[in-house]
Design brief:
A hairpin with a 6-residue loop joins β4 and β5. This protein has a domain of 161 residues: tt1808, chain A (Alpha-Beta Complex). Strands 1, 2, 3, 4, 5, 6 and 7 form a 7-stranded mixed β-sheet that branches. By secondary structure, it is of the alpha/beta class. The protein starts with a helix and ends in a 14-residue tail after the last helix. It binds iron/sulfur cluster.
């Protein structure tokens, strides 16, 4: 299906928010429309070159999914070995595995949180188009009254160059935790950079500090869900990695000879 054909049948607004969806939209609203409204599959990319010790080339997102699944299986004792990517966090993984067994009420792994526009929790089994979806890799309440929690995200790939994006994700996740659990008085967010030598990146939030981010996230989510124009936002970084743009050979960021043809007359600047 071409973008023009898909345009005729697609709904006119994006209905559901998530951190990855908002990030994608903020890079280029037009690309977000192709992906989330027109549902045009991103063209397949050739497999990446094999790294040392690999027998199968994995794209970054495939590797991320595999490692997340392996971590979840280990923590919940569905497997006993740790994949090599989790080596640096061996002690932490063993501690969490012990905690899951000893006190399962205080631990959540790979949880999908869904909520309404007013941040009221919904049941993800029934709410198929929630206002917000957040997938939490690991949440640990550190006391029985659930006044403090660690919200942990496993990160494969680089930390440097992703600081802003990861800080924004941290803001959203701590806010979602406060809105979901009224008993929480403080939250510590932890990004476990599995591929990096340095330790996790941690941030502490009191409830008052955390809730200050609500207005800004409400504004961003409303902006995406109310957009009906989806103006393109061509930019070197966005276009260079845009699957739709890569197929569109007039993309000036790819071949340096023209502009993104997809975006003609749809630019917002
Ligand atoms: S190539 Fe650039 S402008 Fe065109 S859809 Fe992709 S990100 Fe947007």
């Amino acid at each position: 299906m071409t973008p023009d054909q898909a345009q005729d049948t697609a709904p006119s607004k994006i209905q559901s928010n998530s951190f990855s969806r908002l990030s994608f939209y903020q890079n280029c609203p037009f690309a977000a429309k192709l992906k989330y409204l027109n549902k045009i599959p991103e063209p397949a990319r050739p497999p990446p070159a094999l790294k040392r010790g690999q027998t199968v080339g994995e794209h970054a997102n495939e590797r991320g999914s595999r490692v997340h699944e392996a971590a979840d299986d280990f923590i919940n004792a569905r497997r006993d070995d740790l994949v090599s990517e989790l080596d640096r966090y061996k002690d932490e993984m063993n501690n969490v595995r012990f905690l899951v067994k000893a006190n399962p009420d205080l631990i959540q792994t790979e949880q999908l949180w869904t909520s309404t526009q007013n941040w009221e929790p919904t049941d993800p089994k029934h709410d198929l188009t929630p206002w917000l979806r957040v997938i939490v890799d690991l949440l640990i309440f550190t006391d029985n009254d659930k006044t403090h929690a660690r919200v942990i995200d496993f990160k494969t790939g680089k930390r440097y160059g992703n600081e802003v994006k990861h800080a924004q994700q941290t803001q959203l996740y701590q806010l979602a935790a406060f809105m979901r659990y009224p008993s929480l008085q403080s939250v510590t967010t932890e990004l476990w950079y599995l591929d990096q030598k340095h330790g996790p990146a941690k941030n502490d939030f009191t409830r008052a500090q955390g809730e200050r981010f609500r207005a800004s996230w409400d504004r961003r989510m409303n902006e995406m869900c109310n957009d009906t124009e989806f103006k393109a936002r061509p930019h070197e970084k966005s276009c260079m990695f845009c699957a739709y743009g890569l197929e569109e050979h007039s993309n000036k960021w790819v071949n340096k000879s023209g502009d993104c043809k997809l975006s003609l007359d749809k630019r917002d600047r």
